[in-house]
Every structure is written in structure tokens, then in C-alpha cells.
Amino acid sequence: MASAPQSGDDVFDQFLADRGHETEPVGWDRSYNKLQCPDCMALHDEAADDCGVCGWAPN
């Protein structure tokens, strides 16, 4: 038995996933002992909360 989605975002995420898009939360990439911004590829210390170059922050 199928259940109804919990919110409108679930429906939208399913729509995107059905068409090949990623819908998982995006976090920092890793480069050796640094955090790397997935948007601009800038490197930051492990304690960074957001990207100092482009302003991106993990979900």
C-alpha cells in the first residue's frame, strides 16, 4: 500500500528525481584536510560554516 507524501517538497523532489536530478542535500566536498565548496571549488578550514568566496552554505 502506497502512502501520501508528507509535504509539497516531497512531490517536487520526486518529480525532479524521476527526471534524473539529484534531490539529496548537498554538503561540503573534501580535499585532503580541507573543506571544498561544491559551487565555486574554494578551499576552507574544517571549521568553516559557509563559503567565504561565494556565500554557499550546506543544507
**How much strand?**
5-15%
Low-confidence stretches: 1-5
The biggest beta sheet, please?
3 strands, antiparallel
Helix content: 10-25%
Counted by DSSP, the helix tally is: 1
Number of strands: 3
Mean pLDDT: 83
| Topology order in helix (H) and strand (E) letters | HEEE
Strand order within the widest sheet?
1-2-3
User: What is the overall silhouette?
Assistant: elongated
Q: End-to-end span in angstroms? A: 32 Å
Structural class of the secondary elements?
A: alpha+beta
What is the gyration radius calculated from CA atoms? 16 Å
How would you portray this structure in words?
A hairpin with a 6-residue loop joins strand 2 and strand 3. Strands 1-2-3 form a three-stranded antiparallel β-sheet, with no helix packed on it. The N terminus is likely disordered. The chain has a domain of 29 residues. It has one helix and three strands. The protein has 59 residues and is α+β, with helices and mostly antiparallel strands. It starts with 7 loop residues before the first helix and ends in a 15-residue tail after the last strand.
